[in-house]
Design a protein that fits this description.
The protein is α/β, with parallel strands linked by helices. The protein has three domains: about 1-125 and about 335-355, Nucleotidyltransferase, domain 5; about 135-330, 2-Layer Sandwich (Nucleotidyltransferase, domain 5), CATH 3.30.420.40; about 375-565, Carbamoyltransferase, C-terminal domain (DHBP synthase). Helices cover about 35% and strands about 20% of the residues. The chain is built from 18 helices and 23 strands. A hairpin with a 5-residue loop joins strand 2 and strand 3 (about 25-30). The longest helix is centred in the middle third of the chain and has 30 residues, at about 270-300. The mean pLDDT is about 90.
Length: about 575
Protein backbone atom coordinates (compact mmCIF):
# COMPACT_ATOMS: atom_id res chain seq x y z
CA UNK A 1 0.00 0.00 0.00
CA UNK A 2 1.10 3.57 -0.71
CA UNK A 3 0.18 6.73 1.17
CA UNK A 4 0.76 10.11 -0.48
CA UNK A 5 0.95 13.18 1.75
CA UNK A 6 0.70 16.88 0.91
CA UNK A 7 1.15 19.40 3.71
CA UNK A 8 2.81 22.48 5.26
CA UNK A 9 2.28 24.93 2.39
CA UNK A 10 -1.34 24.51 1.26
CA UNK A 11 -4.28 22.37 2.39
CA UNK A 12 -2.96 19.14 3.89
CA UNK A 13 -4.28 15.88 2.47
CA UNK A 14 -3.63 12.14 2.56
CA UNK A 15 -4.27 9.67 -0.27
CA UNK A 16 -4.25 5.88 -0.13
CA UNK A 17 -3.23 3.88 -3.21
CA UNK A 18 -3.55 0.10 -3.03
CA UNK A 19 -1.10 -2.46 -4.37
CA UNK A 20 -2.99 -2.58 -7.69
CA UNK A 21 -2.76 1.16 -8.35
CA UNK A 22 -6.29 2.11 -7.23
CA UNK A 23 -7.06 5.28 -5.29
CA UNK A 24 -8.99 3.84 -2.35
CA UNK A 25 -9.30 6.83 -0.02
CA UNK A 26 -8.62 10.56 0.21
CA UNK A 27 -8.84 12.69 3.35
CA UNK A 28 -8.28 16.39 4.02
CA UNK A 29 -6.91 17.45 7.37
CA UNK A 30 -9.36 20.34 7.70
CA UNK A 31 -12.32 17.94 7.47
CA UNK A 32 -11.19 16.59 10.83
CA UNK A 33 -9.36 19.47 12.52
CA UNK A 34 -12.14 21.94 11.53
CA UNK A 35 -9.50 24.57 10.70
CA UNK A 36 -10.22 25.78 7.17
CA UNK A 37 -7.29 25.20 4.83
CA UNK A 38 -5.30 23.45 7.58
CA UNK A 39 -1.66 23.27 6.41
CA UNK A 40 -0.25 21.32 9.33
CA UNK A 41 0.92 17.73 9.11
CA UNK A 42 -2.28 15.74 8.38
CA UNK A 43 -2.20 13.72 11.58
CA UNK A 44 -5.96 13.27 11.94
CA UNK A 45 -6.47 12.47 8.25
CA UNK A 46 -3.66 9.91 8.34
CA UNK A 47 -4.93 8.26 11.52
CA UNK A 48 -8.41 8.00 10.02
CA UNK A 49 -7.12 6.23 6.91
CA UNK A 50 -4.96 3.86 8.97
CA UNK A 51 -7.83 3.00 11.32
CA UNK A 52 -10.61 2.80 8.72
CA UNK A 53 -8.61 0.46 6.49
CA UNK A 54 -6.98 -1.47 9.36
CA UNK A 55 -3.55 -0.85 7.89
CA UNK A 56 -0.31 -2.36 9.16
CA UNK A 57 2.07 0.56 8.64
CA UNK A 58 5.02 -1.86 8.30
CA UNK A 59 3.67 -2.59 4.83
CA UNK A 60 3.16 1.08 3.84
CA UNK A 61 5.38 3.22 1.64
CA UNK A 62 4.93 6.91 2.48
CA UNK A 63 5.51 9.56 -0.16
CA UNK A 64 5.80 13.31 0.41
CA UNK A 65 4.64 15.34 -2.58
CA UNK A 66 7.82 17.34 -3.16
CA UNK A 67 11.54 17.61 -2.41
CA UNK A 68 11.71 20.54 0.03
CA UNK A 69 15.48 21.06 0.09
CA UNK A 70 15.56 21.59 -3.67
CA UNK A 71 12.83 24.21 -3.35
CA UNK A 72 14.72 26.21 -0.75
CA UNK A 73 18.08 25.99 -2.55
CA UNK A 74 16.43 27.36 -5.71
CA UNK A 75 14.97 30.34 -3.86
CA UNK A 76 18.20 30.97 -1.97
CA UNK A 77 20.27 30.85 -5.18
CA UNK A 78 17.95 33.33 -6.90
CA UNK A 79 18.07 35.63 -3.88
CA UNK A 80 21.88 35.76 -3.83
CA UNK A 81 22.18 36.16 -7.61
CA UNK A 82 19.53 38.90 -7.81
CA UNK A 83 20.00 40.79 -4.56
CA UNK A 84 23.47 39.83 -3.33
CA UNK A 85 22.19 38.37 -0.08
CA UNK A 86 19.63 36.05 1.41
CA UNK A 87 16.37 37.98 1.47
CA UNK A 88 13.79 37.84 4.24
CA UNK A 89 11.77 35.63 1.89
CA UNK A 90 14.70 33.22 1.56
CA UNK A 91 15.11 33.02 5.32
CA UNK A 92 11.38 32.48 5.74
CA UNK A 93 11.46 29.72 3.14
CA UNK A 94 14.34 28.06 4.99
CA UNK A 95 12.02 27.81 7.97
CA UNK A 96 9.44 26.20 5.69
CA UNK A 97 12.08 23.80 4.38
CA UNK A 98 13.05 22.83 7.90
CA UNK A 99 9.41 22.33 8.80
CA UNK A 100 8.55 20.29 5.73
CA UNK A 101 11.68 18.16 5.37
CA UNK A 102 12.77 17.54 8.94
CA UNK A 103 9.39 17.86 10.60
CA UNK A 104 7.74 15.52 8.06
CA UNK A 105 10.00 12.71 9.20
CA UNK A 106 9.41 13.52 12.87
CA UNK A 107 5.65 14.07 12.47
CA UNK A 108 5.26 10.81 10.58
CA UNK A 109 7.28 8.84 13.11
CA UNK A 110 5.20 10.27 15.94
CA UNK A 111 2.32 8.27 14.48
CA UNK A 112 3.96 5.14 13.05
CA UNK A 113 6.99 4.84 15.42
CA UNK A 114 9.33 3.96 12.59
CA UNK A 115 7.06 1.16 11.40
CA UNK A 116 6.91 1.75 7.68
CA UNK A 117 8.21 0.04 4.56
CA UNK A 118 9.85 3.10 2.98
CA UNK A 119 9.74 6.90 2.56
CA UNK A 120 9.93 8.58 -0.85
CA UNK A 121 9.96 12.21 -1.88
CA UNK A 122 8.22 12.86 -5.18
CA UNK A 123 8.87 15.72 -7.59
CA UNK A 124 6.29 18.41 -6.86
CA UNK A 125 5.23 18.96 -10.46
CA UNK A 126 5.27 15.27 -11.28
CA UNK A 127 2.90 14.74 -8.34
CA UNK A 128 0.51 17.22 -9.95
CA UNK A 129 0.83 15.56 -13.36
CA UNK A 130 0.21 12.05 -12.02
CA UNK A 131 -2.88 13.14 -10.08
CA UNK A 132 -4.79 13.44 -13.36
CA UNK A 133 -4.72 9.71 -13.96
CA UNK A 134 -7.21 8.84 -11.25
CA UNK A 135 -9.89 9.95 -13.70
CA UNK A 136 -10.58 7.84 -16.79
CA UNK A 137 -12.21 9.78 -19.56
CA UNK A 138 -11.02 7.72 -22.46
CA UNK A 139 -7.90 9.67 -23.36
CA UNK A 140 -5.51 7.63 -25.47
CA UNK A 141 -1.78 8.05 -25.07
CA UNK A 142 0.31 10.04 -25.78
CA UNK A 143 -0.79 12.89 -23.49
CA UNK A 144 0.96 16.15 -22.74
CA UNK A 145 0.51 17.02 -19.08
CA UNK A 146 1.01 20.71 -18.26
CA UNK A 147 1.56 21.91 -14.69
CA UNK A 148 1.19 25.61 -13.80
CA UNK A 149 1.42 26.93 -10.25
CA UNK A 150 3.25 29.45 -8.06
CA UNK A 151 6.29 27.27 -7.52
CA UNK A 152 7.16 23.84 -6.20
CA UNK A 153 10.62 22.35 -5.79
CA UNK A 154 12.63 24.36 -8.34
CA UNK A 155 9.87 24.80 -10.94
CA UNK A 156 7.02 27.21 -11.59
CA UNK A 157 5.70 25.49 -14.70
CA UNK A 158 6.43 22.24 -16.52
CA UNK A 159 5.20 19.86 -19.18
CA UNK A 160 5.52 16.08 -19.41
CA UNK A 161 4.96 13.69 -22.28
CA UNK A 162 3.14 10.56 -21.14
CA UNK A 163 3.37 7.60 -23.52
CA UNK A 164 1.91 5.59 -20.65
CA UNK A 165 1.69 6.20 -16.93
CA UNK A 166 5.15 4.69 -16.51
CA UNK A 167 6.77 6.10 -19.66
CA UNK A 168 7.20 9.76 -18.79
CA UNK A 169 9.56 12.39 -20.08
CA UNK A 170 9.93 16.03 -19.03
CA UNK A 171 9.73 18.16 -22.17
CA UNK A 172 9.61 21.75 -20.92
CA UNK A 173 10.18 23.69 -17.69
CA UNK A 174 10.12 27.20 -16.30
CA UNK A 175 12.25 27.74 -13.22
CA UNK A 176 11.67 30.08 -10.29
CA UNK A 177 10.84 33.00 -10.32
CA UNK A 178 9.25 32.91 -13.79
CA UNK A 179 5.75 31.95 -12.81
CA UNK A 180 2.25 32.49 -14.18
CA UNK A 181 0.91 31.67 -10.74
CA UNK A 182 3.05 34.30 -9.00
CA UNK A 183 2.04 36.85 -11.65
CA UNK A 184 -1.64 36.25 -10.83
CA UNK A 185 -0.84 36.21 -7.10
CA UNK A 186 0.68 39.70 -7.40
CA UNK A 187 -2.52 40.90 -9.10
CA UNK A 188 -4.54 39.32 -6.30
CA UNK A 189 -2.39 41.04 -3.69
CA UNK A 190 -2.55 44.41 -5.48
CA UNK A 191 -6.35 44.27 -5.56
CA UNK A 192 -6.47 43.71 -1.81
CA UNK A 193 -7.46 40.03 -1.80
CA UNK A 194 -5.88 37.25 0.27
CA UNK A 195 -3.19 35.54 -1.76
CA UNK A 196 -3.32 31.75 -2.20
CA UNK A 197 -6.98 31.92 -1.26
CA UNK A 198 -8.89 34.57 -3.21
CA UNK A 199 -7.50 34.35 -6.74
CA UNK A 200 -10.98 33.22 -7.77
CA UNK A 201 -12.25 36.69 -6.82
CA UNK A 202 -9.92 38.24 -9.40
CA UNK A 203 -11.36 35.88 -11.99
CA UNK A 204 -14.92 36.83 -10.99
CA UNK A 205 -14.08 40.54 -10.92
CA UNK A 206 -12.56 40.38 -14.41
CA UNK A 207 -15.98 40.09 -16.05
CA UNK A 208 -16.86 43.59 -14.85
CA UNK A 209 -13.85 45.26 -16.45
CA UNK A 210 -12.35 46.22 -19.78
CA UNK A 211 -8.93 45.47 -21.24
CA UNK A 212 -7.55 48.88 -20.26
CA UNK A 213 -4.26 47.70 -18.73
CA UNK A 214 -3.26 44.89 -21.11
CA UNK A 215 -0.32 46.77 -22.63
CA UNK A 216 1.08 47.56 -19.16
CA UNK A 217 0.72 44.02 -17.89
CA UNK A 218 2.42 42.61 -20.99
CA UNK A 219 5.55 44.42 -19.82
CA UNK A 220 5.47 42.28 -16.67
CA UNK A 221 5.30 38.80 -18.20
CA UNK A 222 5.98 37.24 -21.58
CA UNK A 223 6.36 33.92 -23.37
CA UNK A 224 8.73 33.91 -26.35
CA UNK A 225 10.75 31.15 -28.01
CA UNK A 226 9.77 28.64 -25.38
CA UNK A 227 10.80 30.91 -22.48
CA UNK A 228 8.41 32.19 -19.81
CA UNK A 229 9.82 35.39 -18.28
CA UNK A 230 8.74 37.69 -15.46
CA UNK A 231 10.18 41.20 -15.37
CA UNK A 232 11.18 41.16 -11.72
CA UNK A 233 11.37 44.93 -11.35
CA UNK A 234 7.58 44.82 -11.02
CA UNK A 235 7.50 42.11 -8.33
CA UNK A 236 8.62 41.79 -4.72
CA UNK A 237 7.55 38.24 -3.85
CA UNK A 238 11.19 37.07 -3.98
CA UNK A 239 12.33 39.41 -1.20
CA UNK A 240 9.34 40.78 0.71
CA UNK A 241 7.09 39.13 3.27
CA UNK A 242 4.53 41.92 2.84
CA UNK A 243 3.88 42.63 -0.84
CA UNK A 244 4.05 40.47 -3.96
CA UNK A 245 4.20 43.58 -6.15
CA UNK A 246 6.77 46.40 -6.25
CA UNK A 247 6.52 50.20 -6.36
CA UNK A 248 7.28 49.97 -10.09
CA UNK A 249 4.14 47.83 -10.44
CA UNK A 250 2.04 50.64 -9.00
CA UNK A 251 3.81 53.28 -11.10
CA UNK A 252 3.21 51.32 -14.30
CA UNK A 253 -0.51 50.99 -13.63
CA UNK A 254 -0.71 54.56 -12.28
CA UNK A 255 -3.23 53.59 -9.62
CA UNK A 256 -2.70 52.86 -5.92
CA UNK A 257 -3.03 49.33 -4.58
CA UNK A 258 -6.30 48.58 -2.84
CA UNK A 259 -5.82 48.73 0.92
CA UNK A 260 -9.37 49.79 1.75
CA UNK A 261 -11.20 47.77 4.44
CA UNK A 262 -14.35 48.12 2.34
CA UNK A 263 -15.43 45.37 -0.10
CA UNK A 264 -13.74 46.09 -3.42
CA UNK A 265 -17.07 46.84 -5.15
CA UNK A 266 -17.62 49.64 -2.62
CA UNK A 267 -14.27 51.34 -3.22
CA UNK A 268 -13.74 54.53 -5.22
CA UNK A 269 -11.53 52.77 -7.76
CA UNK A 270 -13.74 49.73 -8.34
CA UNK A 271 -13.94 50.28 -12.12
CA UNK A 272 -10.16 50.59 -12.42
CA UNK A 273 -9.63 47.49 -10.26
CA UNK A 274 -12.10 45.56 -12.43
CA UNK A 275 -10.17 46.72 -15.51
CA UNK A 276 -6.93 45.45 -13.97
CA UNK A 277 -8.55 42.07 -13.21
CA UNK A 278 -9.90 41.87 -16.78
CA UNK A 279 -6.50 42.75 -18.24
CA UNK A 280 -4.71 40.25 -15.99
CA UNK A 281 -7.09 37.51 -17.08
CA UNK A 282 -6.35 38.31 -20.74
CA UNK A 283 -2.57 38.39 -20.25
CA UNK A 284 -2.56 35.18 -18.21
CA UNK A 285 -4.62 33.40 -20.86
CA UNK A 286 -2.65 34.60 -23.87
CA UNK A 287 0.63 33.40 -22.32
CA UNK A 288 -0.84 29.99 -21.56
CA UNK A 289 -2.15 29.80 -25.13
CA UNK A 290 1.39 30.55 -26.38
CA UNK A 291 2.70 27.75 -24.17
CA UNK A 292 0.14 25.27 -25.51
CA UNK A 293 0.99 26.29 -29.09
CA UNK A 294 4.69 25.78 -28.33
CA UNK A 295 4.07 22.32 -26.84
CA UNK A 296 1.91 21.27 -29.76
CA UNK A 297 4.57 22.40 -32.25
CA UNK A 298 7.13 20.42 -30.24
CA UNK A 299 5.15 17.17 -29.87
CA UNK A 300 2.17 17.25 -32.30
CA UNK A 301 0.18 15.71 -29.43
CA UNK A 302 -3.45 16.86 -29.28
CA UNK A 303 -4.50 15.53 -25.89
CA UNK A 304 -3.69 17.55 -22.78
CA UNK A 305 -3.94 17.40 -19.02
CA UNK A 306 -3.64 20.59 -16.98
CA UNK A 307 -3.00 20.80 -13.24
CA UNK A 308 -1.41 23.04 -10.61
CA UNK A 309 -3.15 25.92 -8.86
CA UNK A 310 -3.42 28.00 -12.05
CA UNK A 311 -5.68 25.29 -13.51
CA UNK A 312 -8.43 26.46 -11.11
CA UNK A 313 -8.94 29.43 -13.46
CA UNK A 314 -12.01 28.10 -15.25
CA UNK A 315 -12.33 31.11 -17.61
CA UNK A 316 -8.89 30.29 -18.97
CA UNK A 317 -9.92 26.66 -19.51
CA UNK A 318 -12.81 27.78 -21.73
CA UNK A 319 -10.37 29.91 -23.75
CA UNK A 320 -8.01 26.96 -24.29
CA UNK A 321 -10.91 24.97 -25.75
CA UNK A 322 -10.90 27.34 -28.73
CA UNK A 323 -7.47 26.15 -29.87
CA UNK A 324 -8.03 24.06 -32.99
CA UNK A 325 -5.30 21.55 -32.16
CA UNK A 326 -6.66 20.78 -28.65
CA UNK A 327 -8.57 17.56 -29.24
CA UNK A 328 -9.08 16.91 -25.53
CA UNK A 329 -8.24 18.85 -22.39
CA UNK A 330 -8.84 17.57 -18.87
CA UNK A 331 -8.47 19.31 -15.50
CA UNK A 332 -8.82 17.21 -12.31
CA UNK A 333 -11.32 18.37 -9.65
CA UNK A 334 -8.45 19.13 -7.26
CA UNK A 335 -5.62 20.44 -9.46
CA UNK A 336 -3.80 22.32 -6.66
CA UNK A 337 -1.51 21.05 -3.91
CA UNK A 338 -4.34 19.34 -2.02
CA UNK A 339 -4.78 16.97 -4.96
CA UNK A 340 -1.03 16.42 -5.34
CA UNK A 341 -1.08 13.81 -2.56
CA UNK A 342 -2.90 11.58 -5.06
CA UNK A 343 -0.05 11.95 -7.54
CA UNK A 344 2.51 11.39 -4.79
CA UNK A 345 0.82 8.09 -3.91
CA UNK A 346 0.90 7.07 -7.56
CA UNK A 347 4.60 8.00 -7.72
CA UNK A 348 5.30 5.55 -4.91
CA UNK A 349 3.28 2.86 -6.61
CA UNK A 350 4.94 3.33 -10.02
CA UNK A 351 8.40 3.24 -8.45
CA UNK A 352 7.82 0.30 -6.12
CA UNK A 353 10.46 -2.34 -6.67
CA UNK A 354 11.44 -0.44 -9.86
CA UNK A 355 8.70 -2.30 -11.71
CA UNK A 356 8.04 -1.32 -15.32
CA UNK A 357 4.67 -3.02 -15.67
CA UNK A 358 2.82 -0.94 -13.11
CA UNK A 359 -0.15 0.95 -14.50
CA UNK A 360 -2.38 3.38 -12.63
CA UNK A 361 -5.93 2.04 -12.38
CA UNK A 362 -8.09 4.93 -13.40
CA UNK A 363 -11.73 5.66 -12.59
CA UNK A 364 -14.13 8.56 -12.97
CA UNK A 365 -14.94 8.66 -9.26
CA UNK A 366 -15.35 12.28 -8.22
CA UNK A 367 -16.01 11.27 -4.60
CA UNK A 368 -13.06 9.20 -3.32
CA UNK A 369 -13.13 10.56 0.25
CA UNK A 370 -14.52 7.68 2.32
CA UNK A 371 -17.26 8.54 4.79
CA UNK A 372 -19.54 6.44 6.96
CA UNK A 373 -21.49 7.46 10.05
CA UNK A 374 -24.45 5.99 11.85
CA UNK A 375 -27.39 8.38 11.63
CA UNK A 376 -29.04 6.87 14.71
CA UNK A 377 -28.50 9.95 16.84
CA UNK A 378 -30.24 12.07 14.19
CA UNK A 379 -33.29 9.82 14.51
CA UNK A 380 -33.25 10.36 18.27
CA UNK A 381 -32.98 14.16 18.22
CA UNK A 382 -34.56 15.50 15.02
CA UNK A 383 -37.75 15.03 13.03
CA UNK A 384 -37.27 12.67 10.11
CA UNK A 385 -39.42 13.80 7.20
CA UNK A 386 -38.85 10.68 5.14
CA UNK A 387 -36.67 7.61 4.74
CA UNK A 388 -34.41 6.72 1.83
CA UNK A 389 -37.26 5.16 -0.18
CA UNK A 390 -39.06 8.50 -0.48
CA UNK A 391 -35.91 10.60 -0.45
CA UNK A 392 -35.85 11.94 -4.00
CA UNK A 393 -39.55 12.84 -4.20
CA UNK A 394 -39.43 14.68 -0.87
CA UNK A 395 -36.34 16.62 -1.95
CA UNK A 396 -38.17 17.69 -5.11
CA UNK A 397 -41.17 18.84 -3.07
CA UNK A 398 -38.97 20.93 -0.77
CA UNK A 399 -37.04 22.49 -3.65
CA UNK A 400 -40.28 23.44 -5.40
CA UNK A 401 -41.33 25.14 -2.16
CA UNK A 402 -38.17 27.27 -2.42
CA UNK A 403 -36.33 25.68 0.47
CA UNK A 404 -32.54 25.67 0.70
CA UNK A 405 -31.31 22.14 1.43
CA UNK A 406 -28.06 20.90 2.91
CA UNK A 407 -26.53 17.69 1.53
CA UNK A 408 -24.40 15.33 3.60
CA UNK A 409 -24.51 12.16 1.52
CA UNK A 410 -22.08 9.46 0.44
CA UNK A 411 -18.36 9.95 0.06
CA UNK A 412 -16.74 13.36 -0.38
CA UNK A 413 -15.36 15.27 -3.35
CA UNK A 414 -11.63 16.09 -3.32
CA UNK A 415 -11.54 19.59 -4.70
CA UNK A 416 -12.48 23.09 -3.60
CA UNK A 417 -15.80 22.94 -5.49
CA UNK A 418 -18.60 20.92 -3.94
CA UNK A 419 -20.20 18.65 -6.51
CA UNK A 420 -23.38 17.60 -4.71
CA UNK A 421 -22.40 15.35 -1.81
CA UNK A 422 -21.41 18.23 0.50
CA UNK A 423 -23.46 21.01 -1.03
CA UNK A 424 -26.13 23.61 -0.35
CA UNK A 425 -28.73 23.51 -3.13
CA UNK A 426 -31.87 25.41 -4.13
CA UNK A 427 -34.10 25.90 -7.16
CA UNK A 428 -32.17 28.21 -9.51
CA UNK A 429 -35.46 29.46 -11.04
CA UNK A 430 -35.92 31.67 -7.95
CA UNK A 431 -33.33 34.38 -8.53
CA UNK A 432 -33.89 36.06 -5.18
CA UNK A 433 -33.41 32.75 -3.41
CA UNK A 434 -30.15 32.17 -5.28
CA UNK A 435 -28.94 35.62 -4.22
CA UNK A 436 -29.93 34.88 -0.64
CA UNK A 437 -27.96 31.64 -0.72
CA UNK A 438 -24.88 33.19 -2.27
CA UNK A 439 -24.67 36.62 -0.66
CA UNK A 440 -26.67 36.47 2.59
CA UNK A 441 -26.00 32.91 3.72
CA UNK A 442 -22.56 32.17 2.26
CA UNK A 443 -21.27 35.76 2.39
CA UNK A 444 -19.97 35.65 -1.19
CA UNK A 445 -19.21 38.85 -3.05
CA UNK A 446 -21.86 39.75 -5.61
CA UNK A 447 -19.32 39.68 -8.43
CA UNK A 448 -18.59 35.99 -7.68
CA UNK A 449 -21.69 34.08 -8.88
CA UNK A 450 -22.96 30.79 -7.50
CA UNK A 451 -22.61 27.75 -9.77
CA UNK A 452 -25.47 25.96 -11.55
CA UNK A 453 -25.82 22.18 -11.77
CA UNK A 454 -27.91 20.45 -14.44
CA UNK A 455 -28.32 17.35 -16.58
CA UNK A 456 -26.38 17.08 -19.83
CA UNK A 457 -29.40 17.70 -22.05
CA UNK A 458 -30.25 20.89 -20.14
CA UNK A 459 -26.68 22.13 -20.45
CA UNK A 460 -26.74 21.53 -24.21
CA UNK A 461 -30.06 23.39 -24.44
CA UNK A 462 -28.81 26.59 -22.81
CA UNK A 463 -25.01 26.70 -23.19
CA UNK A 464 -22.36 26.57 -25.90
CA UNK A 465 -20.61 23.44 -24.71
CA UNK A 466 -17.18 22.49 -26.03
CA UNK A 467 -16.69 18.79 -26.70
CA UNK A 468 -12.93 18.97 -26.19
CA UNK A 469 -13.31 20.09 -22.55
CA UNK A 470 -16.56 18.25 -21.89
CA UNK A 471 -15.17 16.25 -18.99
CA UNK A 472 -14.27 19.48 -17.21
CA UNK A 473 -17.97 20.31 -16.83
CA UNK A 474 -18.47 17.39 -14.45
CA UNK A 475 -16.15 19.02 -11.89
CA UNK A 476 -16.96 22.73 -12.47
CA UNK A 477 -13.54 23.20 -14.02
CA UNK A 478 -14.59 25.36 -16.99
CA UNK A 479 -17.02 28.16 -17.74
CA UNK A 480 -19.52 27.92 -20.59
CA UNK A 481 -21.10 30.68 -22.67
CA UNK A 482 -24.87 31.12 -22.60
CA UNK A 483 -26.37 30.65 -26.07
CA UNK A 484 -27.22 33.94 -27.79
CA UNK A 485 -30.91 33.04 -28.12
CA UNK A 486 -31.18 32.82 -24.34
CA UNK A 487 -30.21 36.39 -23.45
CA UNK A 488 -33.51 36.64 -21.55
CA UNK A 489 -32.50 33.57 -19.57
CA UNK A 490 -34.77 33.27 -16.51
CA UNK A 491 -32.01 31.80 -14.33
CA UNK A 492 -30.34 35.18 -13.77
CA UNK A 493 -28.72 34.23 -10.47
CA UNK A 494 -26.37 31.64 -11.94
CA UNK A 495 -25.18 33.66 -14.96
CA UNK A 496 -22.19 35.95 -14.66
CA UNK A 497 -21.80 39.48 -15.97
CA UNK A 498 -20.21 38.18 -19.19
CA UNK A 499 -23.05 35.70 -19.86
CA UNK A 500 -21.03 32.71 -18.72
CA UNK A 501 -21.60 30.19 -15.96
CA UNK A 502 -19.21 27.86 -14.15
CA UNK A 503 -21.49 24.96 -14.92
CA UNK A 504 -21.64 21.49 -13.45
CA UNK A 505 -23.26 18.67 -15.37
CA UNK A 506 -24.28 15.46 -13.68
CA UNK A 507 -25.40 11.96 -14.50
CA UNK A 508 -28.49 10.15 -13.28
CA UNK A 509 -26.44 8.11 -10.82
CA UNK A 510 -25.63 11.12 -8.62
CA UNK A 511 -27.96 12.57 -5.99
CA UNK A 512 -28.57 15.79 -7.92
CA UNK A 513 -28.87 13.86 -11.17
CA UNK A 514 -31.63 11.71 -9.65
CA UNK A 515 -33.42 14.81 -8.36
CA UNK A 516 -33.39 16.54 -11.74
CA UNK A 517 -34.28 13.47 -13.81
CA UNK A 518 -37.17 12.52 -11.48
CA UNK A 519 -38.72 16.01 -11.37
CA UNK A 520 -40.26 15.73 -14.87
CA UNK A 521 -38.73 19.08 -15.85
CA UNK A 522 -40.26 20.87 -12.87
CA UNK A 523 -36.66 21.44 -11.86
CA UNK A 524 -34.21 22.22 -14.67
CA UNK A 525 -31.29 23.82 -12.87
CA UNK A 526 -30.20 23.92 -9.24
CA UNK A 527 -27.89 26.43 -7.63
CA UNK A 528 -25.03 24.61 -5.91
CA UNK A 529 -22.45 25.91 -3.46
CA UNK A 530 -20.25 24.30 -0.84
CA UNK A 531 -21.82 23.19 2.45
CA UNK A 532 -19.95 25.32 4.95
CA UNK A 533 -20.37 28.51 6.89
CA UNK A 534 -18.07 31.34 5.84
CA UNK A 535 -14.44 30.65 6.87
CA UNK A 536 -15.29 27.12 8.04
CA UNK A 537 -14.18 23.93 6.27
CA UNK A 538 -16.76 22.00 4.30
CA UNK A 539 -19.06 19.98 6.54
CA UNK A 540 -17.72 16.44 6.89
CA UNK A 541 -19.90 14.71 9.48
CA UNK A 542 -23.50 14.99 10.61
CA UNK A 543 -22.29 16.95 13.65
CA UNK A 544 -20.45 19.41 11.42
CA UNK A 545 -23.56 19.69 9.27
CA UNK A 546 -25.84 20.55 12.19
CA UNK A 547 -23.48 23.23 13.52
CA UNK A 548 -23.16 24.82 10.07
CA UNK A 549 -26.93 24.75 9.53
CA UNK A 550 -27.53 26.47 12.87
CA UNK A 551 -25.15 29.27 11.86
CA UNK A 552 -26.79 29.69 8.46
CA UNK A 553 -30.44 29.20 9.48
CA UNK A 554 -30.93 26.25 7.13
CA UNK A 555 -33.42 23.66 8.30
CA UNK A 556 -33.35 20.59 6.06
CA UNK A 557 -30.53 18.04 6.00
CA UNK A 558 -30.33 15.38 3.29
CA UNK A 559 -28.56 12.16 4.31
CA UNK A 560 -28.29 8.71 2.73
CA UNK A 561 -31.04 7.50 5.05
CA UNK A 562 -33.55 10.30 4.65
CA UNK A 563 -34.26 13.98 5.29
CA UNK A 564 -34.14 15.56 8.74
CA UNK A 565 -35.57 18.86 9.87
CA UNK A 566 -33.00 20.59 12.05
CA UNK A 567 -34.83 22.90 14.45
Amino acid sequence: MFIGISSYFHESTVSLIDENGNLTDFQREDWHSRVKGDKSFPRLALLKIIEDHNLNTKNITFIFYEKPLRSWLTIAKHSVQSHGLLSKMSINNFKNFWKSSISFYLDLNAIVNGNYKDIFYSDHHLSHALSNFNYDYGFDFPIVSVVLDGYGDNLCASAYLFNSTNKISEIWISKYPNSLGLFYTAITDFLGFQINDAEFKVMGLSSFGNAKYVSQLRKMISFDNGQLKLNMKYFDFDRSLINSYSEEFEKLLNIPANISPLPINKTTNFKEYADIACSAQIVLTENIIKLFEYLYDKTKVKKFHLSGGVALNCKMIESLSNLTFVENLFVPPSPGDSGASIGAGYFGYLNSNKRTDNQIKTSNNLFPGKFSQDSKFLDEIFDKLCGKNDLINEIINLLLKDEILACCVGNIETGPRSLGNRSLICNAANNQLVKKLSVDIKGRDEYVPVAPVMLIETARKFYELKDNIFQCYYSMSATAQLKSNFKDFKYKGIVHNDNTSRIQICNDNTLIGKILSTSNNKLEILANTSFNFSNDPVSYSYEDSILAMKKMNIYYLITDNGIYKIN
